[in-house]
Design a protein that fits this description.
Layout (H helix, E strand, L loop, with lengths): L4 E4 L5 H10 L4 E6 L14 E4 L7 H15 L3 E3 L3 H7 L16 H7 L2 H10 L7 E4 L17 E5 L3 E4 L2 E4 L3 E3 L2 H9 L8 E5 L5 E9 L2 E14 L5 E7 L4 H13 L4 E9 L6 E7 L6 H7 L3 H9 L15 E3 L1 H12 L15 H10 L6 E3 L8 H12 L2
Helix pairs in contact: 1-9, 2-3, 10-11
């Protein structure tokens, strides 16, 4: 029997690799990437790797390439991994038919990824959000009392991928330690970054609530906490652990996604204030997340469950998983340590509970020998993705 074909975009990303490793035994996985050294495309679970235009720089050409591949492969499913790929593919989903894109329409996706609107809706549901000031555009600076803000301030663009005058840009979160630094950094932001959210910095551990919702049913759930991040003051998790679900956070997260009519996978990210214990909503990612492999290792195979749901296969909701499973991104941990060594005096303070440099080195070197620890990219039975990642990591230095 011929296996169904699934197109996985953004082969450079770790989430794409986790998806391919999950689905490659049952489906033919075609990986689309803008680089010849993609990690998912190098996996032995990848049936075919295709070079496509960059979804951020050339979204229309990227979408056209995915449409052509879907027709050529008679694909059953298209899985956009990054936000820029989602923004390029959702408007043309009808042209991908009969292939299914297992996410809501573009309007719903745009609503969920609008951080200002997301936090407003969360607040209406009684979910705590950081204190913030919204900067609509650079000309509105005169109306802001910068001296009344509590520093350091977190500067968040209204969207992770912003658009202006027909072009798109991937935007990052920044910090400002003083009023002068904040004014200067705001003036340097591109138009696509506005509205800017100037937020109170919540110091504490990060917790993720992960859900798969389909036809009004919760088909999978999972939670983890961050053990190590890059940059060290807060950012992408590089070492994390599966934890028991906080039922209250789960209920709030589900209510928030339902408010947007969400369908598919999503990560709802919180930070719990170390001083008060109060969890604050940070953001929601309506797509597969970077640490996806941890959920799979702990027993919740989100890619398999999403694919089966979208293709009309029978799905048994996954409600349990193993607690205490840890997953490491090896080169991410190296970057964490490098950031600790090169850390500047003006950098935001490290969150309470951040492990010492010695402990971080120990986690990096001895983690592979600990029960319950898993490597995210480095698999002995699938080594080429780690090799490609290593080549790219060294080339960026």
């Amino acid at each position: 029997m011929t296996r169904r074909a699934i197109i996985v975009t953004d082969g450079e990303q770790r989430a794409a690799l986790a998806v391919v490793r999950s689905l490659g035994a049952k489906y033919r996985c075609i990986v689309a990437a803008s680089s010849r050294t993609s990690i998912a495309g190098a996996s032995r679970f990848c049936d075919r790797s295709v070079i496509v235009p960059d979804a951020l720089e050339r979204p229309d050409e990227f979408a056209a390439a995915i449409i052509a591949i879907a027709a050529d492969e008679r694909a059953s499913l298209v899985l956009p991994i990054s936000e820029q790929s989602m923004l390029a593919i959702l408007p043309v989903r009808s042209r991908l038919s009969p292939a299914v894109v297992p996410f809501p329409d573009l309007e719903t996706f745009n609503a969920l990824t609008d951080k200002q609107r997301l936090l407003e809706e969360a607040s209406k549901l009684g979910i705590a959000i950081p204190a913030q000031v919204v900067v609509p555009n650079v000309t509105s600076l005169a109306a802001i009392d910068f001296d009344a803000l509590h520093y350091p301030i977190v500067m968040k663009p209204g969207r992770s991928v912003g658009g202006h005058a027909g072009s798109r840009a991937k935007l990052s979160v920044l910090y400002a330690a003083s009023a002068d630094e904040l004014r200067r950094k705001i003036r340097l932001q591109p138009a696509a970054a506005f509205p800017l959210l100037l937020q109170q910095r919540i110091v504490g551990p990060g917790t993720g609530i992960f859900l798969l919702l389909w036809d009004g049913e919760q088909r999978a759930r999972f939670a983890h906490r961050r053990l190590c991040e890059k940059p060290p003051s807060g950012g992408v998790s590089v070492y994390r652990e599966s934890i028991a679900l906080d039922e209250e956070l789960l209920e709030r997260s589900r209510a928030l996604l339902d408010r947007f009519g969400w369908r598919g996978v999503a990560m709802v990210e919180y930070k719990r204030d170390s001083a008060t214990g109060q969890p604050y909503l940070m953001e929601v990612n309506g797509r597969f997340w970077g640490s996806l492999q941890l959920a799979i290792d702990a027993g919740v195979d989100f890619p398999h469950l999403l694919a089966a749901s979208a293709l009309g296969e029978r799905v048994q909701p996954q409600t349990s998983y193993r607690i205490g499973v840890r997953s490491r991104w090896w080169w991410g941990q190296v970057d964490h340590l490098a950031g600790r060594v090169r850390r500047r005096a003006t950098a935001p303070p490290l969150p309470p509970g951040t492990v010492s440099v010695a402990r971080a080195v120990g986690d990096l070197l001895f983690g592979p020998f600990r029960p319950g620890d898993y490597e995210e990219v480095l698999w002995l039975n699938d080594p080429r993705p780690f090799w490609n990642e290593t080549v790219r990591w060294m080339g960026a230095r």
